[in-house]
Amino acid sequence: MKKRKIEPAKAQAYLLMLLLIGFPIISSITPFVTQDNRLISVPYRALICLASLPFLWTGFKVVSKLSKLDQTLISVFGGIWGIYIMRLFYDIYVMEVPTTIDTTQYALYTLFICVIPALAFLKPIPDALEKYLAWLIVGYGTFAGGLLLMAVNSLSESDAAYLVGTGRLAAGTANPIGIGYLAVGICTAMIFLVVSDEPRKSVRIGTRLLAVPVIVLSLFLLGGSASKGPILSLLVGIATIFIGAWFSQTGDRVKRRRWIALGSLITPALLVVTLIVSEFAFGFKSFSRFTTAFGSEDSANATGTLRINFFEEALDHFWKNPFFGRSIFVNGDIPYPHNVFVECLMVGGILLLAFYVVFMAFCLFSSFQQVTRGRLSLITALFYVYFWQSLTSGSLSNSFELWGLAIAALAGARWPSPEFTSINATAKILEPAS
Description:
71% of the residues lie in helices and 0% in strands. The chain is an all-alpha fold.
Protein backbone atom coordinates (compact mmCIF):
# COMPACT_ATOMS: atom_id res chain seq x y z
CA MET A 1 0.00 0.00 0.00
CA LYS A 2 1.45 3.33 -1.09
CA LYS A 3 1.80 6.11 1.45
CA ARG A 4 -0.01 9.30 0.57
CA LYS A 5 2.27 12.27 0.27
CA ILE A 6 1.12 15.83 0.80
CA GLU A 7 2.00 18.02 -2.16
CA PRO A 8 4.37 20.90 -1.28
CA ALA A 9 1.77 23.49 -2.32
CA LYS A 10 -0.87 21.87 -0.11
CA ALA A 11 1.63 21.76 2.74
CA GLN A 12 2.12 25.52 2.21
CA ALA A 13 -1.64 25.98 2.41
CA TYR A 14 -1.69 24.07 5.71
CA LEU A 15 1.16 26.23 7.00
CA LEU A 16 -0.64 29.44 6.07
CA MET A 17 -3.83 28.17 7.71
CA LEU A 18 -1.90 27.44 10.93
CA LEU A 19 -0.31 30.89 10.76
CA LEU A 20 -3.72 32.55 10.42
CA ILE A 21 -5.94 30.60 12.81
CA GLY A 22 -3.55 28.27 14.62
CA PHE A 23 -3.43 30.42 17.73
CA PRO A 24 -7.25 30.62 18.03
CA ILE A 25 -7.32 26.84 17.61
CA ILE A 26 -4.90 26.22 20.49
CA SER A 27 -6.61 28.96 22.52
CA SER A 28 -9.88 27.04 22.15
CA ILE A 29 -8.20 23.84 23.35
CA THR A 30 -6.28 25.39 26.27
CA PRO A 31 -9.27 25.79 28.68
CA PHE A 32 -9.89 22.03 28.49
CA VAL A 33 -6.24 21.02 28.95
CA THR A 34 -4.25 23.45 31.10
CA GLN A 35 -4.35 26.88 32.69
CA ASP A 36 -0.81 27.66 31.55
CA ASN A 37 -1.08 28.92 27.98
CA ARG A 38 2.69 28.64 27.41
CA LEU A 39 2.55 24.84 27.58
CA ILE A 40 0.69 24.95 24.25
CA SER A 41 1.53 28.33 22.69
CA VAL A 42 5.34 27.94 22.83
CA PRO A 43 5.31 24.50 21.12
CA TYR A 44 2.86 25.94 18.58
CA ARG A 45 5.25 28.75 17.66
CA ALA A 46 8.13 26.28 17.47
CA LEU A 47 6.01 24.05 15.22
CA ILE A 48 5.29 26.94 12.86
CA CYS A 49 8.99 27.73 12.61
CA LEU A 50 10.05 24.11 12.04
CA ALA A 51 7.30 23.55 9.46
CA SER A 52 8.55 26.62 7.57
CA LEU A 53 12.15 25.48 7.26
CA PRO A 54 11.69 22.99 4.38
CA PHE A 55 10.29 25.79 2.20
CA LEU A 56 13.18 28.19 2.71
CA TRP A 57 15.58 26.58 0.24
CA THR A 58 12.91 26.51 -2.47
CA GLY A 59 12.04 30.11 -1.67
CA PHE A 60 15.63 31.28 -1.99
CA LYS A 61 15.92 29.49 -5.34
CA VAL A 62 12.82 31.39 -6.45
CA VAL A 63 14.41 34.70 -5.42
CA SER A 64 17.50 33.95 -7.49
CA LYS A 65 15.32 33.91 -10.64
CA LEU A 66 13.51 37.17 -9.96
CA SER A 67 14.09 40.61 -11.41
CA LYS A 68 16.42 43.05 -9.66
CA LEU A 69 13.40 45.04 -8.48
CA ASP A 70 11.78 42.05 -6.78
CA GLN A 71 15.06 40.93 -5.27
CA THR A 72 15.41 44.45 -3.89
CA LEU A 73 11.94 44.17 -2.34
CA ILE A 74 12.96 41.00 -0.51
CA SER A 75 16.11 42.83 0.65
CA VAL A 76 13.90 45.64 1.96
CA PHE A 77 11.93 43.03 3.92
CA GLY A 78 15.24 41.86 5.40
CA GLY A 79 16.19 45.47 6.16
CA ILE A 80 13.00 46.00 8.16
CA TRP A 81 13.78 43.09 10.41
CA GLY A 82 17.49 43.90 10.59
CA ILE A 83 16.68 47.35 11.98
CA TYR A 84 14.07 45.97 14.36
CA ILE A 85 16.31 43.21 15.75
CA MET A 86 19.24 45.61 16.26
CA ARG A 87 16.96 47.95 18.19
CA LEU A 88 15.59 45.01 20.19
CA PHE A 89 19.06 43.83 21.25
CA TYR A 90 20.22 47.39 21.98
CA ASP A 91 17.24 48.15 24.22
CA ILE A 92 17.28 44.82 26.08
CA TYR A 93 20.98 44.05 26.46
CA VAL A 94 22.70 47.46 26.28
CA MET A 95 20.15 49.85 27.75
CA GLU A 96 18.56 47.07 29.89
CA VAL A 97 15.06 48.42 29.34
CA PRO A 98 12.46 46.53 31.44
CA THR A 99 10.26 44.30 29.25
CA THR A 100 6.69 43.16 29.69
CA ILE A 101 7.52 39.55 28.73
CA ASP A 102 10.55 37.30 29.10
CA THR A 103 13.27 38.44 26.67
CA THR A 104 13.66 34.98 25.13
CA GLN A 105 10.06 35.16 23.93
CA TYR A 106 10.95 38.05 21.63
CA ALA A 107 12.93 35.56 19.55
CA LEU A 108 9.74 33.53 19.18
CA TYR A 109 7.82 36.63 18.13
CA THR A 110 10.38 37.92 15.61
CA LEU A 111 12.56 35.33 13.88
CA PHE A 112 10.58 32.19 14.69
CA ILE A 113 7.01 33.36 14.07
CA CYS A 114 7.34 36.42 11.78
CA VAL A 115 10.47 36.25 9.60
CA ILE A 116 11.05 32.54 8.92
CA PRO A 117 7.38 31.61 8.30
CA ALA A 118 6.92 34.61 5.97
CA LEU A 119 9.90 33.53 3.84
CA ALA A 120 8.24 30.12 3.40
CA PHE A 121 5.79 31.79 1.00
CA LEU A 122 8.38 33.16 -1.44
CA LYS A 123 7.27 30.32 -3.67
CA PRO A 124 3.68 31.34 -4.47
CA ILE A 125 0.69 29.19 -3.56
CA PRO A 126 -1.09 28.40 -6.87
CA ASP A 127 -4.45 30.11 -7.40
CA ALA A 128 -5.97 26.67 -7.93
CA LEU A 129 -5.22 25.81 -4.28
CA GLU A 130 -6.85 28.90 -2.77
CA LYS A 131 -10.14 27.02 -2.51
CA TYR A 132 -8.27 24.31 -0.64
CA LEU A 133 -6.92 26.96 1.73
CA ALA A 134 -10.43 28.39 2.15
CA TRP A 135 -11.86 25.01 3.13
CA LEU A 136 -9.03 24.51 5.63
CA ILE A 137 -9.82 27.87 7.25
CA VAL A 138 -13.57 27.21 7.30
CA GLY A 139 -13.19 23.67 8.66
CA TYR A 140 -10.59 24.21 11.35
CA GLY A 141 -11.87 27.70 12.15
CA THR A 142 -15.43 26.45 12.72
CA PHE A 143 -14.03 23.70 14.94
CA ALA A 144 -12.14 26.29 17.01
CA GLY A 145 -15.20 28.56 17.17
CA GLY A 146 -17.35 25.70 18.43
CA LEU A 147 -14.80 24.83 21.13
CA LEU A 148 -14.64 28.47 22.22
CA LEU A 149 -18.41 28.57 22.66
CA MET A 150 -18.20 25.35 24.69
CA ALA A 151 -15.48 26.91 26.83
CA VAL A 152 -17.79 29.88 27.55
CA ASN A 153 -20.16 27.49 29.33
CA SER A 154 -17.38 26.64 31.79
CA LEU A 155 -15.69 30.00 32.21
CA SER A 156 -13.31 30.58 35.06
CA GLU A 157 -14.26 33.24 37.59
CA SER A 158 -11.84 35.75 36.05
CA ASP A 159 -13.15 35.16 32.51
CA ALA A 160 -16.75 35.34 33.70
CA ALA A 161 -16.01 38.61 35.49
CA TYR A 162 -14.33 39.93 32.32
CA LEU A 163 -17.35 39.00 30.22
CA VAL A 164 -19.77 40.67 32.60
CA GLY A 165 -17.60 43.73 33.18
CA THR A 166 -16.61 44.47 29.58
CA GLY A 167 -19.39 42.82 27.60
CA ARG A 168 -16.79 41.07 25.43
CA LEU A 169 -16.40 37.38 24.71
CA ALA A 170 -13.20 35.77 26.04
CA ALA A 171 -12.30 32.26 27.10
CA GLY A 172 -9.00 31.09 28.54
CA THR A 173 -6.22 32.60 26.44
CA ALA A 174 -8.57 33.61 23.61
CA ASN A 175 -8.95 37.39 23.86
CA PRO A 176 -11.79 39.35 22.21
CA ILE A 177 -9.66 40.68 19.34
CA GLY A 178 -8.34 37.18 18.57
CA ILE A 179 -11.87 35.78 18.57
CA GLY A 180 -12.94 38.63 16.30
CA TYR A 181 -10.25 37.91 13.72
CA LEU A 182 -10.99 34.18 13.86
CA ALA A 183 -14.56 35.10 12.89
CA VAL A 184 -13.30 37.37 10.11
CA GLY A 185 -11.13 34.59 8.69
CA ILE A 186 -13.99 32.07 8.70
CA CYS A 187 -16.49 34.49 7.18
CA THR A 188 -14.09 35.81 4.50
CA ALA A 189 -13.09 32.28 3.45
CA MET A 190 -16.72 31.16 3.28
CA ILE A 191 -17.76 34.12 1.14
CA PHE A 192 -14.77 33.45 -1.13
CA LEU A 193 -16.02 29.89 -1.65
CA VAL A 194 -19.57 31.07 -2.38
CA VAL A 195 -18.40 33.68 -4.92
CA SER A 196 -15.80 31.44 -6.62
CA ASP A 197 -16.73 29.65 -9.83
CA GLU A 198 -17.65 26.01 -9.30
CA PRO A 199 -18.59 23.89 -12.37
CA ARG A 200 -20.20 21.10 -10.32
CA LYS A 201 -23.77 22.05 -9.47
CA SER A 202 -24.03 19.75 -6.44
CA VAL A 203 -20.89 21.27 -4.88
CA ARG A 204 -22.15 24.78 -5.66
CA ILE A 205 -25.48 24.12 -3.92
CA GLY A 206 -23.83 22.36 -0.97
CA THR A 207 -21.40 25.25 -0.48
CA ARG A 208 -24.22 27.78 -0.39
CA LEU A 209 -26.25 25.71 2.08
CA LEU A 210 -23.22 25.29 4.33
CA ALA A 211 -22.51 29.02 4.13
CA VAL A 212 -25.63 29.87 6.17
CA PRO A 213 -24.67 28.22 9.51
CA VAL A 214 -20.97 29.02 9.05
CA ILE A 215 -21.61 32.73 8.49
CA VAL A 216 -24.12 32.82 11.37
CA LEU A 217 -21.49 31.30 13.70
CA SER A 218 -18.80 33.71 12.53
CA LEU A 219 -21.10 36.72 12.95
CA PHE A 220 -22.02 35.58 16.47
CA LEU A 221 -18.33 35.32 17.36
CA LEU A 222 -17.70 38.69 15.72
CA GLY A 223 -20.51 40.35 17.65
CA GLY A 224 -19.42 38.66 20.86
CA SER A 225 -15.88 39.96 20.49
CA ALA A 226 -17.26 43.52 20.46
CA SER A 227 -14.05 44.57 18.69
CA LYS A 228 -14.15 47.44 16.22
CA GLY A 229 -11.05 46.44 14.26
CA PRO A 230 -12.27 42.97 13.17
CA ILE A 231 -15.67 44.33 12.17
CA LEU A 232 -14.12 46.96 9.90
CA SER A 233 -11.55 44.44 8.65
CA LEU A 234 -14.33 42.10 7.53
CA LEU A 235 -15.72 44.86 5.32
CA VAL A 236 -12.26 45.27 3.78
CA GLY A 237 -11.91 41.54 3.10
CA ILE A 238 -15.38 41.15 1.59
CA ALA A 239 -14.91 44.26 -0.56
CA THR A 240 -11.67 42.79 -1.97
CA ILE A 241 -13.43 39.54 -2.90
CA PHE A 242 -16.34 41.41 -4.47
CA ILE A 243 -13.99 43.59 -6.56
CA GLY A 244 -12.10 40.55 -7.84
CA ALA A 245 -15.36 38.77 -8.69
CA TRP A 246 -16.75 41.90 -10.37
CA PHE A 247 -13.83 42.07 -12.82
CA SER A 248 -13.57 38.29 -13.32
CA GLN A 249 -13.91 37.22 -16.95
CA THR A 250 -15.24 33.71 -16.19
CA GLY A 251 -18.83 32.50 -15.94
CA ASP A 252 -21.99 34.56 -16.30
CA ARG A 253 -20.66 38.08 -15.67
CA VAL A 254 -24.04 39.82 -15.73
CA LYS A 255 -25.64 37.48 -13.21
CA ARG A 256 -22.58 37.55 -10.97
CA ARG A 257 -22.42 41.36 -10.96
CA ARG A 258 -26.06 41.55 -9.96
CA TRP A 259 -25.40 39.32 -6.96
CA ILE A 260 -22.31 41.32 -6.05
CA ALA A 261 -24.23 44.58 -6.21
CA LEU A 262 -26.90 43.08 -3.94
CA GLY A 263 -24.26 41.68 -1.59
CA SER A 264 -22.55 45.08 -1.40
CA LEU A 265 -25.80 46.58 -0.10
CA ILE A 266 -26.66 43.73 2.26
CA THR A 267 -23.23 43.28 3.89
CA PRO A 268 -22.98 46.63 5.76
CA ALA A 269 -26.62 46.35 6.82
CA LEU A 270 -26.06 42.81 8.06
CA LEU A 271 -23.06 43.90 10.12
CA VAL A 272 -25.06 46.73 11.72
CA VAL A 273 -27.83 44.24 12.57
CA THR A 274 -25.18 41.92 14.03
CA LEU A 275 -23.93 44.69 16.32
CA ILE A 276 -27.43 45.60 17.48
CA VAL A 277 -28.56 41.99 18.05
CA SER A 278 -25.31 41.13 19.85
CA GLU A 279 -25.81 44.02 22.24
CA PHE A 280 -29.54 44.00 22.91
CA ALA A 281 -30.25 40.26 22.63
CA PHE A 282 -27.04 38.72 24.04
CA GLY A 283 -25.62 41.51 26.21
CA PHE A 284 -22.33 42.07 24.37
CA LYS A 285 -21.28 45.71 24.07
CA SER A 286 -20.78 45.50 20.31
CA PHE A 287 -22.78 48.58 19.33
CA SER A 288 -21.93 50.84 22.28
CA ARG A 289 -18.18 50.34 21.76
CA PHE A 290 -18.54 52.12 18.43
CA THR A 291 -20.65 54.95 19.79
CA THR A 292 -18.38 55.63 22.80
CA ALA A 293 -14.98 54.96 21.18
CA PHE A 294 -13.80 58.54 21.62
CA GLY A 295 -15.39 59.28 24.97
CA SER A 296 -13.79 59.90 28.35
CA GLU A 297 -10.57 58.02 29.13
CA ASP A 298 -12.28 56.64 32.24
CA SER A 299 -14.74 54.76 30.04
CA ALA A 300 -13.81 51.12 29.34
CA ASN A 301 -15.11 51.54 25.79
CA ALA A 302 -13.13 54.70 24.96
CA THR A 303 -10.43 52.77 23.14
CA GLY A 304 -10.17 55.41 20.42
CA THR A 305 -9.14 58.01 22.99
CA LEU A 306 -6.67 55.59 24.59
CA ARG A 307 -5.10 54.76 21.21
CA ILE A 308 -4.53 58.44 20.52
CA ASN A 309 -2.71 58.66 23.85
CA PHE A 310 -0.57 55.67 22.82
CA PHE A 311 0.29 57.43 19.55
CA GLU A 312 1.28 60.62 21.36
CA GLU A 313 3.62 58.76 23.74
CA ALA A 314 5.19 56.82 20.88
CA LEU A 315 5.69 59.98 18.81
CA ASP A 316 7.41 61.61 21.80
CA HIS A 317 10.05 58.88 21.49
CA PHE A 318 10.30 59.53 17.75
CA TRP A 319 10.88 63.27 18.07
CA LYS A 320 13.79 62.65 20.43
CA ASN A 321 15.60 60.79 17.61
CA PRO A 322 13.71 61.25 14.31
CA PHE A 323 16.17 59.49 12.00
CA PHE A 324 16.85 56.28 13.91
CA GLY A 325 14.09 56.08 16.52
CA ARG A 326 14.56 55.78 20.26
CA SER A 327 12.83 52.78 21.84
CA ILE A 328 11.08 49.52 21.09
CA PHE A 329 8.59 50.09 23.94
CA VAL A 330 6.13 52.93 24.51
CA ASN A 331 6.52 52.60 28.29
CA GLY A 332 6.57 49.93 30.96
CA ASP A 333 2.82 49.30 30.75
CA ILE A 334 2.29 49.71 26.99
CA PRO A 335 4.73 47.65 24.89
CA TYR A 336 3.59 48.97 21.50
CA PRO A 337 1.42 51.85 20.18
CA HIS A 338 -1.17 49.65 18.37
CA ASN A 339 -0.29 51.09 14.95
CA VAL A 340 2.62 49.74 12.89
CA PHE A 341 3.37 53.04 11.12
CA VAL A 342 3.67 54.86 14.45
CA GLU A 343 5.68 51.96 15.86
CA CYS A 344 8.14 52.20 12.94
CA LEU A 345 8.79 55.85 13.80
CA MET A 346 9.27 54.99 17.47
CA VAL A 347 11.54 51.96 16.91
CA GLY A 348 13.64 52.93 13.88
CA GLY A 349 12.69 56.49 12.99
CA ILE A 350 12.31 57.71 9.42
CA LEU A 351 14.70 54.99 8.19
CA LEU A 352 12.53 52.08 9.36
CA LEU A 353 9.33 53.80 8.25
CA ALA A 354 10.76 54.30 4.75
CA PHE A 355 11.66 50.60 4.48
CA TYR A 356 8.21 49.56 5.72
CA VAL A 357 6.30 51.94 3.45
CA VAL A 358 8.22 50.84 0.34
CA PHE A 359 7.70 47.15 1.05
CA MET A 360 4.00 47.39 1.96
CA ALA A 361 3.25 49.80 -0.90
CA PHE A 362 4.53 47.25 -3.42
CA CYS A 363 2.62 44.42 -1.72
CA LEU A 364 -0.62 46.41 -1.65
CA PHE A 365 -0.36 47.91 -5.14
CA SER A 366 0.78 44.73 -6.91
CA SER A 367 -1.89 42.54 -5.33
CA PHE A 368 -4.69 45.07 -5.82
CA GLN A 369 -3.68 45.55 -9.45
CA GLN A 370 -4.29 41.84 -10.03
CA VAL A 371 -7.63 42.01 -8.19
CA THR A 372 -8.83 44.74 -10.58
CA ARG A 373 -7.87 42.46 -13.46
CA GLY A 374 -10.27 39.81 -12.22
CA ARG A 375 -7.98 37.72 -10.00
CA LEU A 376 -10.16 36.36 -7.20
CA SER A 377 -7.70 35.74 -4.36
CA LEU A 378 -8.45 34.79 -0.77
CA ILE A 379 -4.81 35.42 0.16
CA THR A 380 -5.05 39.01 -1.10
CA ALA A 381 -8.34 39.57 0.75
CA LEU A 382 -6.88 38.26 4.01
CA PHE A 383 -3.72 40.32 3.46
CA TYR A 384 -5.86 43.48 3.37
CA VAL A 385 -7.74 42.28 6.46
CA TYR A 386 -4.54 41.98 8.48
CA PHE A 387 -3.05 45.14 7.02
CA TRP A 388 -6.05 46.95 8.49
CA GLN A 389 -5.47 45.07 11.75
CA SER A 390 -1.91 46.43 11.84
CA LEU A 391 -3.35 49.97 11.76
CA THR A 392 -5.70 49.46 14.71
CA SER A 393 -4.14 46.93 17.09
CA GLY A 394 -1.07 45.38 15.46
CA SER A 395 2.64 45.53 16.13
CA LEU A 396 5.74 44.73 14.07
CA SER A 397 6.62 41.61 16.08
CA ASN A 398 3.12 40.37 16.83
CA SER A 399 1.42 40.76 13.44
CA PHE A 400 2.84 37.48 12.16
CA GLU A 401 -0.24 36.87 10.00
CA LEU A 402 0.42 40.14 8.16
CA TRP A 403 4.01 39.22 7.26
CA GLY A 404 3.15 35.78 5.94
CA LEU A 405 0.23 37.12 3.91
CA ALA A 406 2.27 40.08 2.60
CA ILE A 407 4.95 37.79 1.12
CA ALA A 408 2.32 35.34 -0.17
CA ALA A 409 0.29 38.13 -1.80
CA LEU A 410 3.40 39.74 -3.31
CA ALA A 411 4.59 36.39 -4.71
CA GLY A 412 1.18 35.55 -6.15
CA ALA A 413 0.92 38.95 -7.82
CA ARG A 414 4.46 39.53 -9.09
CA TRP A 415 5.94 36.07 -9.84
CA PRO A 416 3.01 33.63 -10.16
CA SER A 417 4.23 31.71 -13.25
CA PRO A 418 5.70 28.21 -12.97
CA GLU A 419 9.15 29.57 -13.86
CA PHE A 420 8.83 32.19 -11.09
CA THR A 421 9.93 34.98 -13.41
CA SER A 422 8.84 38.44 -12.33
CA ILE A 423 6.04 40.23 -14.11
CA ASN A 424 5.95 43.87 -15.10
CA ALA A 425 3.68 46.25 -13.22
CA THR A 426 1.66 46.72 -16.41
CA ALA A 427 1.79 43.11 -17.63
CA LYS A 428 -1.05 40.64 -17.69
CA ILE A 429 -1.43 38.39 -14.69
CA LEU A 430 0.65 35.44 -15.95
CA GLU A 431 2.79 37.16 -18.54
CA PRO A 432 6.53 36.80 -17.79
CA ALA A 433 8.65 39.92 -17.85
CA SER A 434 10.58 40.46 -21.06
